[in-house]
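Just scan my protein:

——
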Amino acid sequence: MKKALLILFGLVTVLLAKATHNRSGEILYKRVAPFGTINAPVYTYSITVIKYTDHGTLVADRCVDTVYFGDGQKGVAPRINGGTSLNCGCSGTIQCGQLIVQQNGYTVKKNIYSILHTYPGAGTFAISSSDPNRNSGIHNIPNSSSVPFSIEALLIISAGTTANSSPAFGLDPINQATLGVCFVENLMASDADGDSLSFELIPCAAPGYFYPEIQANGTLNMDQSGTFTWCTPQFVAEYQVAYRVKEWRKNTSGTYVLIGSVMRDRQILVNPGPVGLKDWKESNTLLPYPNPVSSDLYLDTEAASAEGHYSLIDLNGRTTELKAEPVAGDKLRFDLSFFESGLYFLRLEYGGQVVYRKIAKEE
């Protein structure tokens, strides 16, 4: 009997050790055809759950995810991305997810789950998914490894509603921040149906949650361009923030009405030095010059590409797209002569990577 209890205790210990280290996530929805007829519509939606997790031998892996549709029903969604190269042990056609960041002490695995569901009719439905644990050590969520990771989307179906896709995010939530330097991030949100979008910063669904600390007279906000600004990170730590994106559609009376929303529960890793998606040794080449700059700013094309996307962000989060002009000597040139003097952040996006560089503009 004593031996059996020891074996049982050991099994429980192993199961508890294999925590599901959830870092970020969101739920998306899309109505799919056939839509039925005017008199007998069919409200079938494709539900996509995206979760970004830690990865390793002591991290539990989810081959499937349970989705609650908001109408009293639930379903089990298989993971559909990444192939089987990670040898996750999932059966059948279920895939293993994709490892998108692998740095010393910091890994991010992207897991996409998909399922179809037909709603009985018009109504408001809170689609949700939950997992037992976040990763440990989140600064602004006490005892985070024991706190469930919960995400949701709000789907509003009106009688006669045609095609409708939720807002979607253009970039994975894997940018990192620098201690003492303003962190600026645009959600790159879009709506396939052309619906209008609004944005807000919201608390994470976690007991004891508090917003990230800011410097005196600093900034922590989300503007209506979808830009999140945090001036400035005060501690080297992992932080959690959440955004909600609402979609609005004009009705027959010309009034905009809410037809749904998605939230992104998102983790930000604050580092002590300059960061990007590469390590600092590699990112050291991503240095625009001269800095401070009065007119022309240059960047070596060994570190970037003319096909990339570049923008300048001021301390209020306002973003201006920049044109990269190739010049002799394998360089890119940006004309900053029309910007006012002050501090800015140059956002460089190319090859699936995003980094930020602090720029001082002078007259």
In short: The chain has two domains: 2-271, 280-361. The longest strand covers residues 256-271.
